[in-house]
Amino acid sequence: MTGAHRSLAQSAQLFIVRNLIWAILVVVFLAFSVTLPNFFTLENVHLILYVASALGMLVFAESLVLVSGNMDLSIAHIAGLSSMFVGALSIQWFHLPGWSAAILMIVVGAMLGSVNGFFVGWVRINPFLVTLSTFLMYNWLTYAINRGAILAVSPALVFLGGGKIFGIFSAIFVLILVCFLLGFILTRTPFGGYVHAIGGNPEASFMLGISLPWMNFWVFTIAGALAGLCGLLFVGYLDSIPSTIAGGDDIFLAFAGAIIGGISLKGGEGTMSGALGGVLLLGIIDTGTAMTLINPAVRGFLDGLILLLAILINKYRLELRDRILLPRGSAAQAAL
Amino acid sequence: MREEPRESSRGEGVRGGSARNDGAGALLSLEAIEKWYGEVHALRGVTLEVYPREIVGLIGDNGAGKSTLIKIISGVVPRSSGAIRWKGRKVRVGSVREARRLGIETVHQDRAVVGSMSVARNIFLGREPTRWMGPFRVLDRARMAQEAERLVKYLNLNISSVDQDVRFCSGGEMQGVAISRAMHFKASLVILDEPTTALAVSGVQTVLDFITRLKRDGIACLFVTHNLHDVYAVADRFIVMARGSVAAVVERKDCTVEDLARLQVTRKAGA
Lengths: 336, 271
Fold this sequence. Notes:
The complex is a heterodimer. Chain A is mostly helical. In chain A, 75% of the residues lie in helices and 2% in strands.
């Protein structure tokens, strides 16, 4: 009765299917390393990780929201608004120490996210509509605060996004730490289980006594905090706070990274290590194509093409996984 | 009919069957429960009892108020008025958690499990055993797997591994997963909402076996269905609902399936 009886070959297949994003990542990385002379260097790997870390926060945030069965269009603008608001507050309006401004950015991000969480969780409005509204509001609020850029940013505020620890960009530590922490929460804690549960079957979760309003509230609030952290990293990248700090493609790349990493739009499925793989793959391809001097417009087009490919691969990946996982002779197998 | 079944009309207090019309010793008693959904009067003074270790069939046509009633008992929706007594004590039952704390477990038709989670996780969903890992409260996965395996064996579920996602289970096995929650958490009353309706014939028998096993373990069941044959096979007593109130209460020994069918139809017509 107990224990799945799977052959070694099946177990190996399952491992590859489950970690397909990392296999693809290695293949793409090797392909660039072979074709581009300067690609496979420690410095380049360092740079890829660095550039991926701010976007990584957005991908993690979006992944969390997607696993819970929601979506969030506003996270890129939460990053922009929280950094601009706290920047103006701490530099232009009052003179707050840099470290407190750094913490405040994350707090403000969480508060902006909690607005989404309130309307999705308690008022029960569709998350697409809620975050579409806040997307517009947060975007234009950023410009309302400041049309130009705040330049006199204190060193404490740029440390996390631009500083180094033992010669390694501190943002990379943030990327790995956050990935580990979120992965831990999702797989090891009751709360993380409920995020999966409300994404997989909200009705059953409700019937089992899980509070959908509170769960949605906290999921969007955590996503907001991660977006605030992303804003903080952007400030470090740029050493300034322009009103265009986050926006443009960022929200689409957040979705792309999550989906390439195997997070299901339907909710209830996905891992943080997959999301990390997704954002790193985007980073590798972006860096690789940048080094081939391809027209930037073509690179943008490539991002879209890769997303489409990822969707196709994931579709078959999940079917393949289910085929391996299916217990032999079960009713579900007969139906397949 | 061999004998005119005892009936209860609202508020009159003639409930239960033969020796049990005083409500004393009841596990659950509902007193004059009313429910309004806006202008709709869904429940009109429902009064009934469930005694320990008995299987009660709650029957009635669609729209009779069965599902509203069980939602109230399981804490999903609040009642408009009326009292609920649990083991003689007045209780509120304001939430699903509160109902579960009392020992009322509900198995909802085909929406009781999260397909993308494992059998073990589903059994414990919402009430996971935890342990401390440094400053964090984490899931005690070893205990969940161990307990889940014991339950799966006890219920004789055809599940190859408790780590398997529930979506790979058959309908009957899914109900088994939901029912094993009641066993593990030592519920005193299990409400089964149409547990056999979506199942194949073999699945129906599996679920009926689960129900008799619950009874053997001293757990009372409120079996809600409009499939009279399934419920007749296991229930001790039947409560027939029509148009938002209790139309009749019949002991199994006093009626046949045909009697039940007739009751269900005539009461609906208001005869």
